[in-house]
Specification:
536 residues; 13 helices; 28 strands; alpha+beta; elongated; 26% helix; wza like fold; Outer membrane lipoprotein wza fold like
Length: 536
């Protein structure tokens, strides 16, 4: 009997998952975080309550206590600020009583104009404007953080008032079920998602004693995957179409499918749909939806920098080679395609790990090196401080991960990886000299100049220069080690425009192993970054 029950249990689990889901899809679904942001929760981070400026509302109904600015000029001159009295009137000298209670703001001028024209036949110009709304009190209740009675102006927006009450309580309050009550009767319902979607907020004139009530959130779903942000999304009614969700959520252009997770009869059922089904698939309270891109499984993104006239990123099929990619790039007259450079994340990670391992080894040697005398101990202590400072600076270096492309390399054999960065250098007539020379700088290329000639143009080697470890970095990224003390080495290096000459420094240490380690690290950093780091 137990075996039968187990078989039924596993049978249900197997058939609760659609067969077109991959293990990767299922893994992503299982790792969806429960505490997503609630869609709309950032609405009250804008400090609406601090905005006290009067906003023009043509449909505002004038009320007792409102202040009106009036200016008459021509045959009769008058300027004043008048308050609508308890009878709903204002009094204009030589014109008389003007009844404004219940008048639309857009009709304010015409109503005053009719009264003026009954006294003055012509030649009187009129300006009239609502200066300030009447102060009122509004109750705010329901699922807000600070329910209570709040002072307001008749023209304040519902966002200002809800912000005064601390906003909606996430996970409890509804952004879509906000009611305004007057005399215990609902006079308006507000869906704040509409404001989030298109920015429209229909003006509403509050009255003294009105109640704003934020209802309980009833239906929600969890959204994740290829979207701007993972959200818990609230919806009205019993179901919602996937397409209606997409109207609110920023789904990335590369999305090809969505995965729906439902609980049916106590079992979790997962099914994958093409994005074209968004018009027909509906979701219920408690469901989860994850937007995914199968397009990315067959394509990779390559970044292109340097001298070219194309976009700075391009998506290509997996297995694309460098030759095919270069044929798609629009070059400029200044592009030096012969010196194209390729940078790869995986190579940069390996270079960084190698440098880190050598730095750890160096640190261990510094910490464990003993001294036989007090004088030697003092020297060791000072040297150790210098070496530890070098380790700290070297650990911050970020290798570029360059893949060296030799002139004889068949570019069609260089298969690209996701995230590769291709750099098209600009044609250059400059040779850069840096490191241990008197005046590091960039020089114009001179045909026939040797390494020594360029170094001499920079004032020659500095006293700390390691003449046996001069690095020539070719424009393609290829590195050649040059020994300035060897006659043969000088004859074997041909400097071209765009090359760099890096002169490493000597390491002055009493410990041969430490000297060797630092020298090696300096070399690795120079090769992986094309930058000379000073040891001490």
């Amino acid at each position: 009997m137990r075996i039968l029950l187990l078989l039924i249990f596993f049978f249900n689990i197997i058939y609760s998952i659609n067969l077109d889901l991959t293990n990767e899809d299922i893994s992503k679904i299982k790792n969806i975080k429960e505490n997503n942001s609630y869609f709309g929760e950032s609405l009250f981070e804008g400090e609406f309550k601090k905005n006290r400026e009067l906003r023009y509302n043509s449909n505002y109904i004038l009320n007792i206590g409102d202040k009106i600015s009036i200016k008459l000029w021509g045959a009769y001159n008058y300027t004043g600020e008048l308050k609508i009295d308890l009878q709903g009137n204002i009094f204009i000298p030589k014109v008389g009583v003007v009844h404004l209670l219940g008048v639309n703001n857009k009709n304010l001028k015409s109503v005053i104009e009719r009264s003026v024209n009954r006294v003055f036949n012509s030649n009187v110009n009129i300006y009239a404007n609502l200066d300030s709304y009447q102060a009122i009190s509004v109750f705010i209740t329901g699922k807000v953080k600070k329910p209570g009675l709040y002072s307001a102006l008749m023209g304040d927006s519902i966002l200002q008032l809800l912000d005064k009450a601390g906003g909606v309580i996430n996970g409890e309050g509804s952004y879509r079920d906000v009611s305004i009550l007057r005399d215990n009767r609902v006079v308006k319902r507000v869906d704040l998602y509409h404001f989030l979607l298109d920015g429209n907020l229909v003006p509403f004139q509050f009255h003294n004693g009105d109640v704003i009530r934020v209802g309980n959130i009833k239906n929600r779903i969890e959204i994740s995957g290829e979207v701007e942000k993972n959200y818990t999304f609230e919806f009205l009614g019993n179901t919602i179409l996937v397409d209606d969700i997409i109207r609110y959520i920023s789904v990335k252009p590369n999305v090809t499918h969505f995965i729906v997770t439902k609980w049916i009869d106590g079992l979790e059922r997962i099914k994958k749909y093409p994005i074209s089904d968004r018009y027909s698939i509906s979701l219920k309270n408690g469901d989860k939806i994850r937007f995914v891109s199968d397009y990315l499984k067959d394509n990779i993104t390559i970044y292109i920098d340097g001298e070219h006239a194309n976009l700075h990123s391009i998506m290509v099929k997996k297995g694309e080679n460098l030759k095919d990619l270069l044929s798609k790039i629009t070059l400029t007259p200044l592009s030096d395609i012969r010196a194209v450079q390729l940078y790869r994340k995986s190579i940069a990670i390996k270079q960084a790990k190698l440098i880190k391992a050598n730095l750890k080894d160096l640190e261990a040697r510094v910490m464990t090196t003993g001294s036989s005398t007090l004088e030697e101990a003092k020297i060791r202590k000072e040297e150790s401080a210098l070496i530890l400072d070098f380790i700290r600076r070297a650990s911050k270096v970020k290798p570029k991960g360059q893949v060296i492309i030799n002139s004889s390399t068949d570019l069609s054999t260089v298969i690209l990886e996701d995230g590769d960065r291709v750099f098209i250098p600009k044609k250059s007539q400059v040779v850069i000299v840096e490191g241990e020379v008197s005046l590091p700088n960039a020089q114009t290329f001179v045909s026939g100049y040797t390494v020594e000639d360029y170094i001499e143009s920079c004032g020659g080697f500095s006293p700390r220069a390691d003449k046996q470890r001069v690095l020539i970095v070719k424009k393609s990224g290829r590195v050649i080690t040059y020994n300035a003390t060897s006659w043969w080495s000088a004859k074997s290096v041909d400097i071209k425009a765009g090359d760099s000459i890096l002169i490493l420094g000597k390491v002055d240490s009493k410990d041969i192993q430490i000297t060797s380690s630092i020298t090696q690290i300096l070399y690795q950093i120079a090769v992986s970054t094309a930058v000379v780091l000073k040891a001490f």
